Amino acid sequence: MNFTLKIMLKIGIDNIHVYKCFILQHQVTDKTFETKLRWGVPLTAEHLSYLADDHYKRPVIIYDYPKAVKPFYVRLNDDGKTVAAFDMVVPKMGTVITGSQSEERLDMLSARMKEFDLSRDQYEWYQDLRKHGTVKHSGFRLGFDLMVLLMTGLTDVRDVVPFPRTHGKANN
């Protein structure tokens, strides 16, 4: 099925917690994954593709990733194991949107920096932003080319790239 925004609105999008991803993929018996799925190791394109293309057969939003696979500045959830981050994966396309909530609590931010073995001096400016007060905030990244594919119904990303690259030309 060629997914467009209109089709996605009609069939819906499944929201799944990252724990469920692990459970589902460990139950798979008819497929061998190149990369074994383990807690604390990022989900690969192969794992994401299986969930969207084969298991759900529709777009999925995967949320609350393991804290070890996301940057130090992503907000730690109350369980202490996951962070407030998500990916939206569309069949035959991959990850179209990814996002996260930023850590606003200075003590948690300092602890996460320590976990990642980051220099306090190097990130002092970042901590100062939180030290003097902040608000809860989030952000996301949208794959522009993939979103244009969804809106137009085209099937090849090369048809929607705004600035195509050609082999053998300068600044390749």
Give me some keywords for this one.
single chain; 172 residues; alpha+beta; BirA Bifunctional Protein, domain 2; five-stranded mixed β-sheet; 5 strands; 31% helix
What does this structure look like?
The structure is a single chain. With 172 residues, the protein is an alpha+beta fold. It has one domain: BirA Bifunctional Protein, domain 2, CATH 3.30.930.10. Helices cover 31% and strands 19% of the residues. It is built from six helices and five strands. The chain has helices at 5-11, 18-26, 45-55, 106-115, 124-131, 144-152; strands spanning 14-17, 60-66, 82-90, 94-101, 138-142. The protein has a five-stranded mixed β-sheet. A hairpin with a 3-residue loop joins strand 3 (82-90) and strand 4 (94-101). The protein is globular, with a radius of gyration of 19 Å. The two termini are 33 Å apart.
Query: What is the string of helix and strand elements?
Result: HEHHEEEHHEH
Low-confidence stretches: none
> How many separate domains make up the residues?
1
What is the rounded Rg?
Answer: 19 Å
Query: Taking strands numbered 1, 2, ... along the chain, how are they ordered across the largest sheet?
Result: 1-2-3-4-5
Overall mean confidence score, pLDDT: 88
GO molecular function, one term: asparagine-tRNA ligase activity
Protein name: Aminoacyl-tRNA synthetase class II (D/K/N) domain-containing protein
Domain Aminoacyl-tRNA synthetase class II (D/K/N): 44-166
Organism: Gossypium mustelinum (Cotton)
